[in-house]
Amino acid sequence: MELPVRGDAVHTLGLALPPQRMARLRGARPLKRWRYVGYYAPELMLCVGDARIGPVPQRWWAVAYPDGSLRERTTIGRGGVDLSGSRVRVRARGVEIDLVLEEPGGVEVVSPAGSDAGYIWTRKQADVPARGAVMVDGARTEVDGAVFIDDSAGYHARHTVWKWSAGNGIATDGRTVSWNLVTGVHDVEGASERTLWVGREPRELGPVAFADDLSSVGFDEGGALQFTEWSAREEHMNLLVMSSDYRQPFGTFAGTLPGGIELAQGYGVMEAHDVRW
User: Fold this and answer.
1) In this structure, are strands 29-30 and 195-198 parallel, antiparallel, or unpaired?
2) Which of 89, 125, 131, 217 could make an SS bond with 106 (beta carbons 3.0 to 4.6 A apart)?
3) Residue 42: DSSP 8-state
């Protein structure tokens, strides 16, 4: 079976995929893998991540508020972050996050990466029930809602560039909606990771186009979302063996999803990443 492949058929490919152990190297390419959990709501948004590029770990967390304030930290090492199992835990100075997730399973995609038999895998889960609390400087916010989860792994090209958005909201007709939109990785039409969930039912979306400044994203199928930023996580580094130009703003969305679904409320993130790894 040729790549890319979307859905349950990814596990008939004969490739090592999570939860199986994947080789640390495929040719000259190191294994890159990460888990990202995002909670997007009107009172606050947060993300917690755990990544590894070859042998190098990186962990991060951020809590964003609608007034534009942002608490965040990125570390090499544990950094008080624990994403083991279906749990999200952060212990840092002035910040505690503790969430329990009920993961239902998600949309899986395997795509080729480069011309030397490299491949990449992802699983996206939306509208995942989550309960717990966030404590920032003694102020406690109860969480009883849903999170978005991105699990990814593979042997990405040395130079990889993508734009991405994840979010959730309520349509004007009362239905819950979530989305995962991307260009640059897993974006081949017919077997992409682009997904719209309506009432937790997923369907693949066609190509999208992001504004260079991440102020909007348009759909080939019709419709567009406009984005208003609260605050942003950013990283701009250029080391000998790795460079990264990264921006991920939190904010609100307005507009129309494919199928004429008009948003009454929308919350989430945009992202642009240009990385040599």
Assistant:
1) unpaired
2) 125
3) S
Residue 143 tokens, joined: 């969480």
Specify whether the CB–CB gap between 57 and 44 falls below 8 A.
no
Whose CA is closest to 155, among 10, 24, 5? 24
200: alpha, beta or left, given left = phi > 0 and alpha = psi -120 to 50? left
Report pLDDT digits (tens) over 68-118.
Answer: 999 999 999 889 999 999 999 999 999 999 999 999 899 999 999 976 779
- Residue 248 corresponds to which tokens in the numbers above? 């991920």
Return d(Cα 211, Cα 234) in angstroms, integer.
18
pTM comes to 0.96
Instruction: Please tell me the number of Cα atoms within 13 Å of 37 on its side-chain side.
Output: 26
Alpha-carbon torsion angle 226, 166, 168, 209, nearest 10: 30
